[in-house]
């Protein structure tokens, strides 16, 4: 059993147990503190601890009243690090219809009242009020995806960089290990240099100030900083910088915002990116290029740190839903080259897949087998996309020049090495470990990678072997896949493959189940109201899924989240890839008119769907969906659709 001293300290008492008078870095998180590699604050805390720093964590501080939670550990020697948690706070709190979610998955007992909206902004402003000259560094997905002008769905407006809204000193965007380590090293060098802007306590001990930190931040990759004039930008505006349309221009002209996003996405996914600069009022926001993708050794180091893999003892007897989901799962890689238009993964983790070594993965699995409540079943051996492990470009020189946001859309890149053998080797090794009964794949699977003709029989055979292994040994009764839509036009805007591939994969899935005497289901995910999707596209989706005998469960209305292609379409009405206009369903009525088609099989929805198809003057779709004969259409038209539907009692 883990002891209190096995966790990073969260209180003054825990700091005293370690003999600390002051922490070097204090991390504030909008999530409960779970000491697990799936929780970003735990990762950064353990990483800094391994460098010999004294790191403390303040999870879910109370932002009301006298701010005692923010004051209880004093000020750090270097800086405060602030993260909203593992999810954007607004996505975590609200549904696509802007309704409160049933629970906060990252809070004890799922409570909703333990974090504010936009904790990145709220926490920073409180810290700056209490400790005005102490540096504040932002990290995590909320700041990462709001690093430049972005559309906020919950306020229905464009907002400037969250760096300006919060008043922080810098953002470390993306997965934060590399910039954090370098910033700490630079911060310590500034501290040791006797910089004139350093502050001192009554004992003469030096600490960093915001002014002194500027030297450490200068030119640091993967950061966002702000300056009061173009002349203040380190090196000035250089010929190779990419100067975006200003925030004010974007407010006046949506097309400018769409053009900006195209550049931002391209640079986010390049191995040799340009510096981005955007003016907002009298401030200039500068985004430095990201670090190269982490090496296997670097990623192993991050995952091999001494996590307890448990929630802090303060939560004893309380359930943290997100922990329940991942406690017996293993993340094998980061990054995703799918480039889906509605997904934030590449904007945060990048499109280049970074994979752990087999040895590191097996060490984590072995640690899980020692957990008291483990019963032999791993809930997930995966990553952002389960079957991208160890995949990369065959010729990395070609990748250096690449500007595509996706390696598999509109077609799979001939330079991609889609070898599934390393993944099969991991599955086999995990399956042979003592204490392991089964390992399931809970992450999404890209079936387009499985069905592709790789022009190499060894790779094609490996894909077939992987498909068979996945379906026969790693499905817990239901395999979830994400075709997302049935319309090829909508799928193209989503950067997803044709629905014909789903038909092919389902046929293969059913055949393997029949051959193996298995009774398993394939569960598809679909999205309504994605930019470009109209009500008739959803009617076709209903017809197609009915033909496949699906009664859909895994469905959602499109939620515009910051820094995605689809959100840019939603906000501007333009496709940033082509700058062509795109239809967008924005009103609640338009969204509901699309969403209802998911539930064509429910009697209470049928009369509304019939009414919508008649309103659209599409009796052809009505006939195909409900088999309404032409001579019955007049009766359908005469129904009183505003009356409540009462199914006949038996």
Give a verbal description of the structure.
The strands form nine sheets. This protein has a nine-stranded mixed β-sheet with strand order 3-1-4-5-8-11-14-13-12, sandwiched between helices. The protein has a three-stranded parallel β-sheet with strand order 24-25-26. α2 (40-50) crosses α8 (177-192), α8 crosses α9 (210-217) and α11 packs antiparallel against α23. β25, α22 (535-547) and β26 form a beta-alpha-beta unit. Mean pLDDT is 94; it is low at 640-650. With 650 residues, it is an alpha/beta fold. Helix content is 37%, strand content 14%. The protein contains 27 helices and 26 strands. The protein has a domain at 4-144 and 176-217.
Proportion of strand residues: 5-15%
Helical residues, percent:
25-40%
Rg result: 26 Å
Helix and strand content put the structural class at alpha/beta
Question: Which regions are unreliable across 5 or more consecutive residues at pLDDT < 50?
Answer: 640-650
Tertiary shape: globular
For the sheet with most strands, the description reads: 9 strands, mixed
- How many distinct helices? 27
Say how many strands there are: 26
Distance from N terminus to C terminus (CA atoms, Å) equals 57 Å
Strand order of the largest sheet: 3-1-4-5-8-11-14-13-12
Overall pLDDT, averaged?
94
Summarize this, please?
This protein is of the alpha/beta class and 650 residues long. It has a domain at 4-144 and 176-217. It has 27 helices and 26 strands.
Which key terms come to mind for this protein?
single chain; 650 residues; alpha/beta; three-stranded parallel beta sheet; 27 helices; 26 strands
